[in-house]
Amino acid sequence: MARPRVQSTATQVEFRKGELTLRYFTTLTSLGTPHDITLQELRVESFFPADETTEEVSRRLAGG
Question: How many CB atoms sit inside 10 A of residue 55's CB?
């Protein structure tokens, strides 16, 4: 029996510099409706840490 394909609404992104690797997943949100010209083309992209190391480094870089 074939397994159903799972589609993800998030994209994984990986950044590397030297020994440091940061992994995030990103989501893209569209606001508005086709009738709302003001919001029709507005997109918001959000990045979230995909692992504990990335979260710790991100908090440190943000000053938190």
Answer: 15
pLDDT in tens, 27-64: 888 776 667 666 667 788 899 999 999 999 999 999 86
Q: Is 1 part of any domain?
A: no
This prediction's pTM? 0.65
CA dist., res. 42 & res. 36, Å (int): 11
Write the single-letter amino acid at 27.
T
The domain of 31 spans: 11-61
Q: Are 13 and 1 in contact (CB under 8 A)?
A: no
In a domain, 3, yes or no: no
